[in-house]
Design brief:
- This protein has 429 residues and is an alpha/beta fold.
- The chain folds into 2 domains: 200 residues, Glycogen Phosphorylase B (Rossmann fold), CATH 3.40.50.2000; 170 residues, 3-Layer(aba) Sandwich (Rossmann fold), CATH 3.40.50.
- It has 19 helices and 12 strands.
- Helix 10 packs across helix 13.
- It is globular.
- The chain binds uridine-5'-diphosphate.
- Uridine-5'-diphosphate binds next to helix 2 and helix 14.
Length: 429
């Protein structure tokens, strides 16, 4: 018999208690929502920083537009379902995107097909059904909005199982190469960031009328910062005024070979101030702090005023994360992309490069060369700024919020039939 060491139950029990407290608090909050308010359930997961950031941006916009007329619950579905291995996805994400994103890319490509998504969802359905149906009953929203590609097919199965005709919308957060999980049949509205993402949705067999191009949701603070002069942004952040500022970021988790990129840029001795934002990656922060480079270097951890940093910057060096790109377009920044997650972010690189808004520089020395080129060639830099700005959709969040508000008044389509019809098709894509 396996004996548990005394005390080894502690963390597990604590986790259980925390989950219970979280559920009780969320249910209480839900019950306390304004009487007569339209109730929305936003589903996301902390697999990367972008899903939460986008959901939060839309939630804030809905509250700004409709005040007490609306209530929004934002739930990390995988954590809430409390079913292994799904509840571990947020913790595993940094490891999955490590090793140059190879494990992530394999998972992406092996599951990227409409019928594959259906087959996988049906496979996990017996295991997740009761938790998912309990969850939907607990939150009892009028409209469900998904900000994640994984749970959509299973959500539709749960709605069918419960016999509910509730509107479901998805907000796609990949610019071009969006995973098929975003585009399962049966939702009432699909909001996508670009025409290329819409074309992908149509290739997945969705009806044209249900897919609208809104742009990527970005926080309102980015829209408000459009008129913030660069000098003022630098003054607020205590940055030098006389020399260009090169901003380097790696998403919320400070991902990719950021240290090598910084070292390569430093060795070129640019006449510029370099700011690296390491996000939640403490190891990277420590590693960079120990570096001794012949350049003016500033290292920041997670910042909550990214819009000001972007307004202060002259050039942005980043991985091809969709949220960061959408924000950089609003700020009109020329881009140097040093990494992209295989699969979903590959199309982002294409979007930036084909539209002349930046360079693809997957090796640190290429990234350094691209930065030096932009610093030395003012004309190329200005041109890229204007091309980047041309890709911006600063009112995307408002359009998404208004569309969701309208959707809540629309009778839901008979999702059950659509999912059932799809379920009977072969799993071969
Ligand atoms: N971000 C932030 N502060 C930081 C680092 C990142 O607010 O210190 C935000 C960034 O503005 C963007 C998001 O985190 O909204 C990162 O999303 P992205 O899609 O670029 O990458 P992900 O982290 O999802 O891989």
């Amino acid at each position: 018999m396996i004996k548990r060491m005394p005390g080894s139950w502690g963390p597990a029990l604590n986790r259980l208690r925390l989950r219970r407290a979280y559920r009780a608090a969320s249910t209480r909050l839900h019950r306390d929502a304004g009487v007569g308010a339209k109730r929305f359930l936003f589903i996301f997961s902390d697999t990367g920083g972008g899903h939460r950031a986008s959901a939060q941006a839309v939630k804030d916009e809905m509250l700004r537009l409709y005040g007490a007329g609306v209530s929004v619950d934002m739930i990390d579905l995988f954590v809430e379902l409390d079913r292994w291995p799904f509840d571990r996805f947020p913790n595993w994400y940094p490891s999955c995107v490590g090793l140059n994103g190879i494990p992530w890319g394999v998972g992406f490509h092996l599951s990227d097909g409409k019928r594959l998504v259906g087959a996988l969802s049906r496979l996990v359905w017996p295991y997740t059904r009761s938790a998912l149906c309990d969850f939907l009953q607990r939150y009892r929203a009028d409209t469900i909005v998904s900000f994640h590609p994984i749970p959509n097919h299973t959500l539709l199965m749960a709605l069918r199982h419960l016999g509910w005709q509730m509107p479901l919308a998805t907000v796609t957060l990949d610019l071009v190469t969006a995973h098929a999980g975003w585009f399962v049949s049966g939702a009432d509205l699909y909001m996508v960031p670009t025409e290329a993402a819409k074309a992908r949705a149509l290739r997945c067999g969705l009806p044209d009328a249900r897919v609208i191009v809104t742009g990527m949701p970005t926080r309102r603070s980015f829209l408000l910062a459009i008129d913030l002069p660069r000098q003022e942004a630098r003054r607020q952040l205590g940055l030098p005024q006389e020399i260009p500022v090169v901003l380097i970021v790696g998403g919320g988790e400070g991902m990719g070979p950021l240290a090598q990129v910084v070292r390569a840029i430093g060795r070129c001795r640019p006449h510029a101030h370099i700011v690296v934002i390491t996000g939640r990656n403490r190891t990277l922060h420590t590693e960079l702090a120990r570096m001794n480079l012949p350049v003016s270097l500033q290292i920041e951890g997670f910042v909550s005023n990214m819009e000001v940093w972007m307004r202060a910057a002259s050039i942005l060096v980043t991985k091809a994360g969709p949220n960061t790109l959408a924000e950089a377009f609003v700020a009109g920044l020329p881009l140097v992309l040093y990494a992209a997650l295989p699969g979903q972010e590959e199309g982002n690189v294409q979007h930036v490069v084909e539209n002349g808004a930046g360079y693809w520089a997957p090796l640190p020395r290429q990234a350094a060369r691209a930065v030096m080129h932009l610093l030395n060639e003012q004309h190329a830099c200005r041109l890229m700024e204007s091309r980047s700005r041309a890709l911006a959709r600063p009112f995307a969040t408002e359009q998404i919020a208004r569309s969701l508000w309208d959707l809540a008044d629309t009778p839901a389509s008979p999702v059950q039939e659509l999912v059932m019809r799809e379920s009977s098709v072969s799993v071969l894509n």
